[in-house]
Write a structure and sequence with these properties.
Number of domains: 1
Radius of gyration: 15 Å
Largest sheet: 5 strands, parallel
Strand order of the largest sheet: 3-2-1-4-5
Number of helices: 9
CATH class: Alpha Beta
Distance between the termini: 35 Å
Order of helices and strands: EHHEHHEHEHEHHH
CATH architecture: 3-Layer(aba) Sandwich
Number of strands: 5
Strand content: 5-15%
Length: about 160
C-alpha cells in the first residue's frame, strides 16, 4: 500500500509517540520536502523538529511539484504538495486532517484518511492502546469534535 502524508498526521503521531505505526500499517510512506520543511518550522514542537531533521528511513522524501497547481492555491503548501504527490504516485490513500484539504483531495478522486483513522487502525492491529493514544492526543493542540471522535473511535470514552 502506498500512502502519502501531510504534516499534521506526522506531527501528531510524533507527539503521541506512535510515528512507527505508519510503516507497520502501510507498506510505503511518502511525503514531500515541503511537508518536512513545515515540520521543521520554529513554531513546531522540538520533538517534531528533531524528528523531521532526521526522518526515519521508512519515510520516502519525494520532490515537490515543479509547477504549482493553481486549483489548490487556497490550501497550505504542504497540503498542496501532498495532494499532488498522491496523484502522481497513484497513492492508495493520502493522510490529511484539515477539512479543506480533505475536500480538495476527495474532489480529485483521492482516497483520504487521517490521524484518527491511523490510531484506530493501529489499535485494531494490536499495535497501540487506543484510549492511551487518545489521552496523549488530547494533551496536544489537535482539535477534534467529540462527535467525530465517537464516530471514528466508538470504543473510546470522552472525559
Amino acid at each position: 500500500m502506498t500512502v502519502v502524508s501531510n504534516a499534521s498526521p506526522l506531527c501528531y503521531l510524533v507527539l503521541i509517540g506512535h510515528a512507527e505505526l505508519l510503516p507497520k500499517l502501510y507498506k510505503n510512506i511518502h511525503t514531500t520536502r515541503t511537508v518536512i520543511t513545515e515540520l521543521c518550522h520554529p513554531d513546531a514542537p522540538e520533538a517534531v523538529r528533531s524528528w523531521a531533521r532526521s526522518p526515519p528511513v521508512w519515510l520516502h522524501l519525494d520532490a515537490d511539484p515543479s509547477e504549482p497547481d493553481e486549483t489548490l492555491t487556497r490550501l497550505h503548501a504542504g497540503e498542496r504538495s501532498a495532494i499532488w504527490l498522491a496523484e502522481s504516485l497513484k497513492a492508495d490513500v493520502v493522510l490529511l486532517d484539515e477539512a479543506a484539504a480533505r475536500s480538495a483531495a476527495l474532489r480529485r478522486g483521492l482516497r483520504v484518511s487521517g490521524l484518527l483513522a491511523v490510531v484506530r487502525d493501529g489499535g485494531a492491529a494490536g499495535l497501540l492502546d487506543v484510549a492511551s493514544a487518545i489521552d496523549r492526543l488530547r494533551q496536544t493542540n489537535f482539535r477534534v469534535t467529540p462527535a467525530l471522535l465517537r464516530s471514528i473511535l466508538p470504543d473510546t470514552h470522552e472525559s
